[in-house]
Amino acid sequence: MNAHQPVLSDDEWLPGDQPGPPLTALVRQRRGLVFGALAVALALAVVVVAQRPAAPPSARARPSGSPAPSGIPFFGLFPLFAFDPDHQQVVLLDFRAQTWLWSNHQWTQAHAPVTPPARTGAAVAWNPGLHAVLLFGGLADGGQTLLRDTWAWNGSTWREVGRGRLAPPASLMSSMAYDVDLHEMVLVASDIHFRAPIQLWTYDGLAWRQRSVSGGPTSPVAAIGFDPRTRTMVAIAGDCAGFECRSQTWSWDGD
After folding, report:
1. How far apart are CA 248 and CA 237, in angstroms?
2. Looking at residue 159, what is its pLDDT?
3. Predicted local confidence at residue 10, as pLDDT
4. pLDDT score at 32
5. What is the DSSP letter of 12?
6. E strand intervals along 141-243
7. What is the CATH number of the domain that holds 199?
8. Residue 5 falls inside a structural domain
9. Has residue 122 been placed in a domain?
């Protein structure tokens, strides 16, 4: 066994080996984090433009709905999206609560009969157990209310799941990914306040359940994902003191 690789224990997060660069260094290099969101939005637009064909793909099958007249709809700065492998398309919910599908090199509005309320900052990921894109929480349109509802997209419409049951806390910085060993969705409820405690929740397709784990990252947690090689859930977090943060990598084995 590699001496630098920790052995995973039950019911705890384990830190990675190497700390990242301080956030202050990144601020100096990029002249302020306030432009980060704009950069992400512009990057998404560039990717969409780059992937558009020179001529309309009229010979290809198109998904149901209305193609965008310009080919590039405006989604807002923080659209919510995930890939649906069952239907081979990207599913996107924009700031107006409109559902869009990216397939055959074009965006098509889905015109779903049911849709979640408009929001930003929600957690969204593909759930192979449900064969659906799962969405949780976020900040309601208007920026005054944090949400804690759960929705699933089945390829043609949205439906709210788990209504009236226990749910993770309302949070603006939740991250979610599917654990193929647990066969459950894993969600980390983080906070915008540095070093605030996080909560770990799992969703089995019927109900949310809070998991009790020792140690682990504190807020903010930027993202989580499943590592198929180590069979662990990996979280990227920040260890912040004052105006300086260092990135951290944590892993959780699901027990």
Report:
1. 5
2. 97
3. 44
4. 34
5. B
6. 146-153, 158-161, 173-179, 184-190, 199-203, 208-211, 221-227, 232-241
7. 2.120.10.80
8. no
9. yes
Burial class (CB in 10 A: 0-12, 13-18, 19+), 55: exposed
User: What are 255's two structure tokens?
Assistant: 């027990």
pTM assigned to the model:
0.72
Does residue 86 fall inside a structural domain? yes
Whether 95 is covered by a domain: the verdict is yes
Higher-confidence residue of 223 and 219: namely: 223
Number of domains in the chain: 1
- The two most distant CA atoms of the chain are separated, in Å, by 57
Q: What is the pLDDT of residue 122?
A: 93
Distance separating alpha carbons of residues 189 and 201, to the nearest angstrom: 8
pLDDT in tens, 17-33: 544 444 333 333 333 33
> Residue 169 carries which DSSP code?
P
The domain in which residue 87 lies consists of 64-213
DSSP code per residue over 103-168: ETTEEEE---SS-PPPEES-EEEEETTTTEEEEEEEEETTSS-EEEEEEEE-SS-EEEESTTS--P
Higher pLDDT among residues 193 and 40, named by residue:
193
| For range 195-199, the mean pLDDT | 84
